[in-house]
Amino acid sequence: MAFKELDTAGWQALDSAHYLHPFTDHANLAKTGSRVAVRGEGVYVWDNNGDRIIDGLSGLGCVNIGYGRPELAKAVYDQMLDLSYCQSFFNTTHRSAVELADTLTSMLPEGLNHVFFQSSGSEANETAVRLIRKYWDLVGRPEKRVIIARELAYHGSTHMAASLSGITPMHYAGGDLPLPGIARINTPYQYRHGANMTADDFGVVAARWLEDKILEIGPENVAAFFAEPAQSAGGAICPPMTYWPEVQRICRKYDVLLVADEVVCGFGRTGDWFGCYHYGFVPDIMQLGKGLTSGYLPLSACVISDRITDVLIGLGGEWAHGYTYSGHPACCAVALENIRILREEKIVENAKAELVPYFKAKLETFVDHPLIGDVRSVGLMGGLEIVKDKKTGESYLYEEHIGPYCSAEAMKRGLAFRANGDTMSLMPPLVITKDQLDTVFDIAREALDATA
Ligand code: PLP
């Protein structure tokens, strides 16, 4: 096959014939055909026809540093020439993994001192769950089994990660999900569940749903509370500042491990380096992914507190868990270079000072749009919730959702603008400029107008 000679239709035909895409209606894709992306630089991606798209989504909430940084490519190249692969068992280690583990733990709250690496956020969540269960077994409390997770959560696509997720289509995708041992509480979604309260009051009320659930199940049976600091795929659901400190108090009171899935929130998305700093809490386990490498290579980290590793390491014996690509040298090298650039160029700090207030103000101009019922954001993660009736807040039924139509209208105009249900999400790279944000919001408005 002379791939070089293929035109767009040729690529689309091959794509349809052989490549199953994630989260895609393939019958529909066969009609529309895929866009063939060929190049990325900064906040832009180009397709093979030369059309430019401004990436309002940082890929999938991962390309925090922007596309095409040669330093990252060089870090991978150098690492691959030195040592392209290293299995980290049989008493072997390598420098990039050790340096990255040390770097990460130095950036995170005190007491989080060990890191387990894998390739994806889903796998990091699998690691966290196995670790939680192992921990309670080791301390002689195996009845502490139930993990409490939230509505609208997204934790990934593997069996356990999908089970923890509260976005219900994840359960219907196959596999008799959710797996047993998971309980669910509502999420701090003020527009839907607390519109009559102040944000501060609602944060405490929503946190107490966790306490109610723990008491209902019995604290002696509850292993952990598992949540994203702010929910991204659930529709940019950003809790009030009172929520997390109260959640932490409740977890400590009932001896429930607090697990923060920071796969999206980590590395600057909330305006601070990590969601736990932004919201003021310290988890027992934290998962990182996406922004860890800015999406240049797949890598995730499960960061674990001394409370757990003291038992796991202290009691000895092998923990039979791991992946062929745990701590892959090239992935660790690219993460280190990504962190170096983020730090040296003060990308997170500059985004917080310059971009976050601008992004929020721009987003809030949509309050008056006839389609928009709620506007919410934290850092550079924002959501515009489309409603059927602005006065009552009535939503479109699932089969009536118009968000995907709005996404398509934005894409026609050169903006990646995602529909999570009917919440239109924006998560631009942290290196976007104010001018580029103006373009993002101009196109977003045109797309919404075309949808209205
Ligand atoms: N956790 C959160 C909060 C996520 O948003 C995602 C992916 O979007 C995941 C976990 C799963 O990560 P991955 O797709 O790398 O498996």
UniProtKB/TrEMBL annotation:
Alphabetically ordered keywords of this record: Aminotransferase, Pyridoxal phosphate, Transferase
Stated family: Belongs to the class-III pyridoxal-phosphate-dependent aminotransferase family.
Swiss-Prot/TrEMBL cofactor(s): pyridoxal 5'-phosphate
PROSITE patterns: AA_TRANSFER_CLASS_3
The EC number(s) this enzyme carries: 2.6.1.-
Record InterPro entries: Aminotrans_3 (IPR005814), Aminotrans_3_PPA_site (IPR049704), PyrdxlP-dep_Trfase (IPR015424), PyrdxlP-dep_Trfase_major (IPR015421), PyrdxlP-dep_Trfase_small (IPR015422)
Keyword Transferase part of the UniProt annotation: yes
SUPFAM superfamilies associated with the record: PLP-dependent transferases
GO molecular function annotations of the record: transaminase activity
Species this protein is from: Kaistia dalseonensis
Annotated Gene3D superfamilies: Aspartate Aminotransferase, domain 1, Type I PLP-dependent aspartate aminotransferase-like (Major domain)
Principal EC category: transferase
Transmembrane portions of the chain: none
Protein name per UniProt: Putrescine aminotransferase
UniProt entry tagged with the keyword Membrane: no
Pfam families referenced in this protein's UniProt entry, alphabetically: Aminotran_3
